[in-house]
Amino acid sequence: xxxxxxxCETHIETVLECARITRIVEILVxxxxxxxxxxxxxxxxxxxxxxxxxxxxxxxxxxxxxxVSGKTSIIAKPHAAMRVPQGAKPDFVFVTTKSYDxxxxxxxxxxxxxxxxxxxxxxxxxxxxxxxxxxxRVVAGTTAHGVxxxxxxxxxxxxxxxxxxxxxxxxxxxxxxxxxxxxxDVGIVASVTSDIRTELWSKLVVNASINPIAALAEVPNxxxxxxxxxxxxxxxxxxxxxxxxxxxxxxxxEEELRHRTILVAKRTAANRASMLQDLDRHHRTEIDAITGSxxxxxxxxxxxxxxxxxxxxLVRAREAAFRVTSGANVRD
Length: 332
Prior knowledge:
It is a single chain. The chain has 332 residues and is α/β, with parallel strands linked by helices. It has two domains: 2-194, NAD(P)-binding Rossmann-like Domain (Rossmann fold, 3-Layer(aba) Sandwich), CATH 3.40.50.720; 198-326, N-(1-d-carboxylethyl)-l-norvaline Dehydrogenase, domain 2. The protein contains twelve helices and 14 strands. The longest helix has 22 residues, at 196-217. It is globular, with a radius of gyration of 19 Å. It starts with a strand and ends in a 6-residue tail after the last helix.
């Protein structure tokens, strides 16, 4: 396979020249939010894909297809359901739920624990471990594609980003190459890494440096790097989080991660971070799996992370305010 990338100041254009995968692969995407719908929608152009998600979104996809706008413009026609269909025999199961739903998700997916390769593209830490307690073969992955959930049946691809995959448990190199080529065949360029734990920590640092700031300031990602005050906060949060990642054994470099975080914010400039989207809809956020993971690891290593701790407390306070005003729990 040959992948050629052309760069300019305003966009990245990727041209794929590879042998197309001819066998139809059955894929189940559990958690059809923004990212799950994006990956599932693109994969459905070549393969037998079923999205599992919420009633309104699933109903719209069944009726009109999945509309993807922005950097990618298609109307995809995946299968869609609120529950796993009887008789499903997926080759791959993509888990793209919120991190706090992973354990319950695996109860619904345990029938495929021995036959399918499970792929997590979720935010935060701990998801691969949770999945591997049930599933035999697990691939952990990260993606920096920026995707916004516009409404039932519609998502917007707001920014192109890097996707990384690596073996977590009982996955061979040939399995990873097969998955990489499956994604490449529909225009999602993925790289295989031998150190997925470092990649998960790197993605966590990037997320922790963008998501809470965007959520609390109520701005799209690009505004953070254009505003000198917000950029200063991003860089300070990134420094704290990188120190924790190093203490946890991740092979990361502070300057490289700072540059990577700013680059992700620029490439996804028009995107509203997932945490901001959650707060907009009065949903529970993933602050505990993202910034909470950094704060707890910092406590274990006795590292001071005042900015991360402050962002964690503030987002949790916003969630609590929703509970008070609604008289009910924040919606999951």
